Amino acid sequence: MTDAPSPLPEGPDAPEPGSLEAEALEHIRALIRIDSVNTGDPATIGDGETRAALYVKERLDEVGYDTVVVEPRAGRASVVARLTGSDPDAGALVAHAHLDVVPVDAEDWTHPPFGAEIHDGILYGRGAVDMKDFAGMLLAIARAFRREGVVPRRDLIFAFFADEEAGGVWGARWMVENRPELFAGATEALSEVGGFSIPLPEDRRAYLVATAEKGVTVATLTARGSAAHGSRPTADNAVVRLAQAVAAVGAHEFPVVRTAALERFLDVYARAGGDIDDLGFSASLIDAGSRNTASPTVLSAGGKINVIPASASATLDVRVVPGQADALREQLAAVVGDDVEVAWAREIPAIEAPAEGRLVDVLQDAVTAEDPDGTVVPYLLPASTDNKHLARLGIRGYGFVPLRVPADFDVFGQFHTADECVPVEALFFGTRVTARILRDA
Ligand SMILES: [Zn+2]
């Protein structure tokens, strides 16, 4: 660990001052230094998202973009700008990042979460991978294309959204519902979560691309029984029934579903020489994407120690593999048994984009140009991104923020943790690969 944070990494691989990579790093660090924490609670959210949006807007305006800023609530701004491509028949590509970040517990951090300090070639700060890294890359690339007269094949719609971390209500969802014209002609989108390398044998790497995302819903379990005095145990105690159901859910493993994304992952990963039993820290990510999951999170029962309540309930955070919504309901009902009712909230549906095609080929070509030993491998993201909102406009979303990292560096493990960090070299790599993608897509 070095003593003082250095402004830029030094050494043979340091980019030229004024280069695209150096500019991207400058924007990434500036954005990390803007505290844009999204607590999800209007009472505690500041104006960080708007300050970040204005940082982006000013730098896009500077090079001549017609930038649109929308701010449906004070402090919750998003930014959109379009660059016209050479092929009027090609659908536009939305390249997007969110400007908000999740909260921090500063005492858990070794380095200041909004300091954007670099130590030993690693950039630390909230948003280092989620996802001010991509926001800064996109901003640098958008500026460079405009400055240098680079005309991409497709129209590029650069979008920087507020509120992703709380469901996009005032960001992507609001934009899709209220300003869909900003995405006119768009057919595909590129954003989180993917693009990072995971190790393959013989010092080669797989770069995961999310081609699908699980759906999200909430199940509420309710057990009922006779209300009674706590001194006289009953056979139908609602708390006991509920606890048994919750324990059964916790012990249950839903079956593996061979979606197109999983089939493609297994196929491409194996052909690249990867061993499915040797996924290391990526195993949980792939596993969570291969089956439905239901996690008990909130329990509610009883109000007084000497009263057996007539009902008890639990909520489950349920994540649904594409095409599995009906099967999951049947499976969960069987797991909890006849004594417990299951009520379902409205589902945010899973999304699924083709795991093969021109865009995936362009991702591979861009990776190959910068890492000849890299193979792009589709996977199913077990979480949600703003791509779900854009999907309502018929836009097929991909998760690919290219980061070439050392074999022992777990990018997915950085999301939402203390000391969130990313190797600076990975950011330079990502900037170069993303520039190729956006030019050729
Ligand atoms: Zn994110």
Verbal overview:
This protein has 441 residues and is α+β, with helices and mostly antiparallel strands. 30% of the residues lie in helices and 23% in strands. Helix 1 (20-32) packs across helix 11, helix 3 (132-148) crosses helix 11 and helix 9 crosses helix 11. The chain is globular and about 80 Å long. Mean pLDDT is 94; it is low at 1-7. The structure holds zinc ion. Zinc ion is lined by residues 98, 130-131, 164, 192.
Which terms summarize this structure?
binds zinc ion, 441 residues, single chain, alpha+beta, 2 domains, disordered N terminus, 6-stranded mixed β-sheet, Alpha-Beta Plaits, Aminopeptidase, 30% helix
Write the layout of secondary structure elements.
Blueprint: H1 20-32, H2 48-62, E1 68-70, E2 78-83, E3 92-98, E4 118-119, E5 122-124, H3 132-148, E6 156-161, H4 172-178, E7 186-191, E8 197-200, E9 204-213, E10 215-224, E11 228-229, H5 238-251, H6 260-271, H7 283-289, E12 293-301, E13 307-308, E14 311-320, H8 325-336, E15 340-344, E16 351-352, H9 358-370, E17 374-381, H10 387-391, E18 396-399, E19 421-423, H11 424-440
Helix pairs in contact: 1-3, 1-11, 3-11, 9-11
Bound molecules: zinc ion.
Summarize the structure.
By secondary structure, the protein is an alpha+beta fold. It has helices at residues 20-32, 48-62, 132-148, 172-178, 238-251, 260-271, 283-289, 325-336, 358-370, 387-391, 424-440, and strands at 68-70, 78-83, 92-98, 118-119, 122-124, 156-161, 186-191, 197-200, 204-213, 215-224, 228-229, 293-301, 307-308, 311-320, 340-344, 351-352, 374-381, 396-399, 421-423.
